[in-house]
Model the fold of this input.
Amino acid sequence: MEGFMPRADTKVFIDDIDVDRRLAELNMDRQDILDIRDVAASMHATGSSPLFPANGAGQLAYQYGTRELRATHLKRGWVIDQSYGTNGVRHPDRKIVVLYQNVDVACSLSDLPQARSRKGAGSERLSQGSAFDLIEEVVPSTHTGEGLDVEVWYVMIAQDGAVEVTHALIRGGEFSDFIERIFVHDGSDFDPLEDDGSLDDDAVDFDITISRK
Done:
């Protein structure tokens, strides 16, 4: 992202013991995250058929990845969250929301992950909820002060099978700042998926407007 300087103090968890400990603190589980990846990857492979639209693979990965995200976390007491038109889960007692995300790269110290499609206004608004507490100097200029007071985490899955759980902020439709990155798996156990070149991989979130009759 042009003109963007990442935080120098991003917390990165790489060692298995640290990854498992941090996930447990968030009431998450490594195997759940791998299950989400495996389901999304399976559906991505299904959508790679030339009979599907160009973005079919990414759309299926997003839809079924989100479904598996919810299925695994609901078993742990989380609830479905659809704040600002996004689609994720929310911890019932802690101010944490988790969303599924297709990314270009994951678990890399040299490259920061970016969404394979631009993030919508709903995602940006949601991510601003606790932005002032985290890094006030990069709060987007569009910040209205109306965001929910939550931390937004993403299960970020790359096509090579790498997967990380990351607390990130959004600015201008892209991930602009990375607070924590938890490297769950580098994808070394995975058969890489063919990249169809499509960048329109995820559903676009939107603001829900209710009009009174």
Remarks:
- The first strand starts at residue 11 and ends at 13.
